[in-house]
Amino acid sequence: MTKRFGWLMSVLILLLALAACGGETVEPTATPEPEATSAPAEVVEEPTAEPTEEPTAEPEMVVTNAVTVSDQDLGDGSTVTIDSVTADVAGWLVVHADADGAPGPVLGFAPVVAGDNSDVMVELDPIGLTETLYAMLHIDAGTAGEYEFPGEDGPATDADGNVVTPAFALTGGLPTTLALMLAESDTLGTYITDADGMSLYTFSRDVPGTSNCYDQCAIAWPPLLAEDGAVLTAVDGISGELGTTQRDDGTLQVTYNGWPLYYWINDAAPGDTTGHNVGNVWAIAYPDPLVFLSNNEELGDFLVGPEGLTLYRFNFDEPGVSNCYDQCATAWPPLLVEAGQVPTGNAGVVGQLGTTEREDGTIQVTYQGMPLYYWVDDAAPGDTTGQGVNDVWFVVHPYTVRVGSNDDLGDFLVAADGFTQYLFTVDDVDTSNCYGDCAAAWPPLLVEPGEVPVPGFGVTGELGVTARTDDTLQVTYNGVPLYYFVNDAAPGDTTGQGVNDVWFIVEP
């Protein structure tokens, strides 16, 4: 009874509560049945991309111009080594001489690249060397690769705006230098002098690399000597090879293109050139001689080119005009120079060198107006196989007559081959009266048409020509026709002196 009463009371309390909530009946909620599930799927994780870092710009490298150089000894050379050069742009390492404690004249330069350079070698001009030098960095601001200072390639500066130019010293002292210079003459053109301006000469009796001037000759013509180890240098315009040759006494004589150089005792001051053409064997030293003197026993002195090959003249030419072309010029190549080049001669070349323009516009060298040629069959220096070819080709003698002498007769005229010249007292002025058997015994001294007789050393009178009856041209001296004597066997012979009391040597 009691249990039933309790159950009823519980129902009554529930109904009263529902009524208090608005009378809504709450349906009991069915419990959902669980859904059937399959095995859980494997979860594949997608790879996670690593976050990309943005590249960071590297800081710009700042190059600071700098030069490091050590004191050094030149020894026997003229090259210095700069330890290191750092340059922000390509440029030049320029070595300056000292001028009152500051960089002065430029002595040499070498290119440097942008960045670091080590052991930069600079060849110096020994002229103007000072015990203190300056290694200055210059920028290549003008034409790339072309040194332009003074000009656009000015000095470089460091981060503080200072010119980069450390000083360094030549610890071994300055080397002994010997410099050749150039001088100008209205009559001789450009020629070579020593550093004091004194004229220098060459001797035609020398051979390249060997002096043949000793004893009394060397007193009159003192050799230009250099100390052992001296640095030989020359100004611009002297492009030949400088060297030395050892003399018999062990001293070293300076040579230019192999030719020993000399002073002349009678030159008293710079600019004097009184030794030129002395004895027809001495000449002022030229920087680029084109024509030289050679000789042999048969022909005497004759002209050769710069390689020693014999030069010839052509009888069919006219003064200043070549008539040798085509096949002729193939066999007889003309001696040519560049337009504007002034030909000069070495010792003994006493006549006038000039030029003429050929039909093809090339420039041919002339001597006393005669065009000069080589001969294709001459193979070596000293060959004269072109002499007398077709009786129109001949070697070119440097002069027509010069002065010879002996103890008995003193001075007298000789021809280019050294043979004595005579006069005939029966001749008239500018007229020869020696023909037939006379001319066979006393051959006249002849020149070719258009050839101008050239006076050699000591010939102070007037040379001319006179036409003979056979139309050949005989040389005259002050109007007196000149002759050889058939019995003179060697240069210097004077066996014709006084023959028949009508033949005599010719005094200059």
Short description:
This protein has about 500 residues and is mainly β. The chain has helices at about 1-20, 215-220, 325-330, 435-440, and strands spanning about 65-70, 80-85, 90-100, 100-110, 115-125, 130-140, 165-170, 175-185, 190-195, 200-205, 225, 230-235, 240-245, 250-255, 260, 280-285, 290-295, 300-305, 310-315, 335, 355, 365, 370, 395, 400-405, 410-415, 420-425, 445, 465, 475, 480, 505.
Helix content: under 10%
Mean pLDDT across all residues, rounded?
87
Biggest pleated-sheet summary: 4 strands, antiparallel
The strand order across the widest sheet is 4-3-6-7
Oligomer: single chain
Protein structure class:
mainly beta
Large-scale geometry = elongated
Strand % is: 25-35%
Write down how many β-strands occur, each being a DSSP E stretch of 2 or more residues: 32
Q: Ranges with pLDDT <50 over ≥5 residues?
A: 17-39
N-C termini distance: 192 Å
Count of discrete structural domains: 4
Radius of gyration: 49 Å
What is the count of DSSP helices, taking H or I runs of 4+ residues? 4
Structure description:
The protein is mainly beta and 508 residues long. The protein folds into four domains: 66-169, Immunoglobulin-like (Sandwich); 177-284, no CATH class; 292-395, no CATH class; 401-505, no CATH class. It is 7% helix and 30% strand. The protein is built from four helices and 32 strands. The chain has helices at 2-20, 216-220, 327-331, 437-441; strands at 66-68, 79-87, 91-99, 102-112, 115-123, 132-139, 167-169, 177-185, 189-193, 201-203, 225-226, 231-234, 242-246, 252-256, 259-260, 282-284, 292-296, 300-304, 312-314, 336-337, 353-357, 363-367, 370-371, 393-395, 401-406, 410-415, 422-424, 446-447, 463-467, 473-477, 480-481, 503-505. Strands 4-3-6-7 form a four-stranded antiparallel β-sheet, with no helix packed on it. Strands 11, 13, 14 and 15 form a four-stranded antiparallel β-sheet that branches. A hairpin with a 2-residue loop joins strand 14 (252-256) and strand 15. The protein starts with a helix and ends with a strand. The model is unreliable at 17-39 (pLDDT under 50).
